Amino acid sequence: xxxxxxxxxxxxxxxxxxxxxxxxxxxxxxxxxxxxxxxxxxxxxxxxxxxxxxxxxxxxxxxxxxxxxxxxxxxxxxxxxxxxxxxxxxxxxxxxxxxxxxxxxxxxxxxxxxxxxxxxxxxxxxxxxxxxxxxxxxxxxxxxxxxxxxxxxxxxxxxxxxxxxxxxxxxxxxxxxxxxxxxxxxxxxxxxxxxxxxxxxxxxxxxxxxxxxxxxxxxxxxxxxxxxxxxxxxxxxxxxxxxxxxxxxxxxxxxxxxxxxxxxxxxxxxxxxxxxxxxxxxxxxxxxxxxxxxxxxxxxxxxxxxxxxxxxxxxxxxxxxxxxxxxxxxxxxxxxxxxxxxxxxxxxxxxxxxxxxxxxxxxxxxxxxxxxxxxxxxxxxxxxxxxxxxxxxxxxxxxxxxxxxxxxxxxxxxxxxxxxxxxxxxxxxxxxxxxxxxxxxxxxxxxxxxxxxxxxxxxxxxxxxxxxxxxxxxxxxxxxxxxxxxxxxxxxxxxxxxxxxxxxxxxxxxxxxxxxxxxxxxxxxxxxxxxxxxxxxxxxxxxxxxxxxxxxxxxxxxxxxxxxxxxxxxxxxxxxxxxxxxxxxxxxxxxxxxxxxxxxxxxxxxxxxxxxxxxxxxxxxxxxxxxxxxxxxxxxxxxxxxxxxxxxxxxxxxxxxxxxxxxxxxxxxxxxxxxxxxxxxxxxxxxxxxxxxxxxxxxxxxxxxxxxxxxxxxxxxxxxxxxxxxxxxxxxxxxxxxxxxxxxxxxxxxxxxxxxxxxxxxxxxxxxxxxxxxxx
Amino acid sequence: xxxxxxxxxxxxxxxxxxxxxxxxxxxxxxxxxxxxxxxxxxxxxxxxxxxxxxxxxxxxxxxxxxxxxxxxxxxxxxxxxxxxxxxxxxxxxxxxxxxxxxxxxxxxxxxxxxxxxxxxxxxxxxxxxxxxxxxxxxxxxxxxxxxxxxxxxxxxxxxxxxxx
Lengths: 776, 164
Prior knowledge:
By secondary structure, chain A is α+β, with helices and mostly antiparallel strands. Chain A is built from 21 helices and 31 strands. In chain B, helix 2 packs across helix 5.
């Protein structure tokens, strides 16, 4: 084996003998435990993070982690159990994107075991994994594809070795299938029988394995249903608030009437403490917490609290004042020529605040004792959460155990750990375990948002060429202070005056944005301003806004050249894979078919996460559609048909990939037509799903077709966020073509407030009591 | 404290709790029946949709004191019991749950118990009217799914209806 440090210097895959040969370990245990290094497949990781704030330190740590001399604590392990199942603790968060299923498939493939015999659970915070326990950037499968297969292949090799002894045959004579190993003489033994025999006796040993070739794949690439579907449809799937942790009683927080306002004093603490069910009332940094026998009694107590508040940092601000500040921060665009020979086309767009609130609100269970704490929550950056919670509690990091629970959606929300940090503080203050749940109103109003921003585009056309394309995004700061899931990078993002975060944001922007056309001199810039809001990376981060602005101007360029939008995109396309998905949707979606006035098609493309996508939509903006009356709803234009094509590279689970695209399509439609937050007098107004208008059944397209295009690529790309940008852009383009007017703000209905805002004092609404009159 | 008695998933239960506590919390926090989910508490998101005497309703909007001792509550956990054993599918579940599995509808899964309970009630209602489920019927479903699984929900309801 080459010395790892030499290998690091010459080859980004230090342990790779060739593309399919790797080294893993059998490590000591009661049953077989096979291991691989999670940074085994470093090209993806290093390609993603070349300009981190402290690259030298990260490289040193990486060197240390890839030390091949002996297995270290950073290994990920596949365990074979005596019941014949394989177990794996995934150091990522399952939030609905389907990675427990795709991970089970990878293990099943290399182990020759049925998918339903693989048990994938979520690993608790493992600080030794450093930045390798962050779930984000649609990166899970890209980063774990090789290491997980190596661990499974090592397990298979050890099972075969043990079987050869048991069956009196050579490894070459054995066949492993469905969890059973059969010898040439027909005798057989199961994985379960071998689990103990194949275990590492003392210490660990290195094992070289060869991964299966694509031609041998029988699981990878096969449409597979989710491993947690049965639990979900029977109500057995457990989310944080479903967990029965002893004495962790329901807990909620009464929050200030302005965003991030803070409590000064409670005027009626004793009175609220005496309310039915209430056990504790405690003032904490974010508000006043109440703990009770039921969440209903928490709601009653929150509503009864009389609190003196200190106004938050955006008191008095509104959408209009924030937009003015963003406009003031815009950098001048370079002056482009505008002559009869070289004409400049431009666009200037506003994107309002949006919410990434999932169905499962911010919630966490915390049991903080004087000598240690245990936390349960849906967390995409559990190591930073553990470190920040330890800081907050005044404990050393090793005293805080952080368990990662499957979450009911994320959309970027769970990159942060606002609920877990708050629950820990409350539990410490009350001296009792708590099950904290944010009310929907809290989650929508105080939870993290996609920042408000503007995007300006200008492009210069000469004859049949585009000479230049400039794009400038200016927005309220996107908070990346979760860093790369580990405190070193999180601290770098938290340098004074936003300097550190700006570097991070610029890095993320530069690494994700591109204009996927041959448009001459292309520049894309990002300016961020104003760090007073609770923001974060909402699904697909900058791309949806950047791509909408870009594709609307592309349609303008096409019109300038009197070209069809689809043909224009073909002509200026420089990427074969993009050309294929573009042609695929044009053909399958019947681009150019005759449509009635007030309806139109729109087409757009996107490239990110090592994949490419195209979307063709049809929209209906006729009065009979926009005028539909549904109570407490936004109807408006309806997208009636969507044809979406994606080349994601190697698709591990095409059925899961299709599901992610379907979800992204509904996100794109919401961003274009219906969903935004309204800031008024220092607070967001939305407090309900009938205020924040995410796509509903009356908005969703009745006809959706997702085409997973066969790929020439041999490695997987990212899926979770890949569906949003092209859809958002295609809907915007279709709307412009159907109405004859290019929209300049999103969502298009933002100026019209379509609901009666709920109260800020009390901060949460009372539950209705007429449910029995509304049965259906 | 008042005693509250009603039937849940075929079993009569008695709970000591104030009349005004909404049924959702009695189910989840006191009885440990966690299939119905909290998503808003104001009868908007419909994540807690369950059945009362065979009709869809939202326990977040019903003070437990309003139930009578003979009211039958069915949550997702008890849904298979709403059909005869021979009508249950390969997994021993209600035909709508089986359709949901076959169509792999679920993403995060949080809203899905409510979606399924709403779907069953919709199909029962439409069938009682002697007709098939239409796109217009599907458009009336208010249950929100933030993962955006709507396409597969619509397909699964059509599939489930044909099995019911």
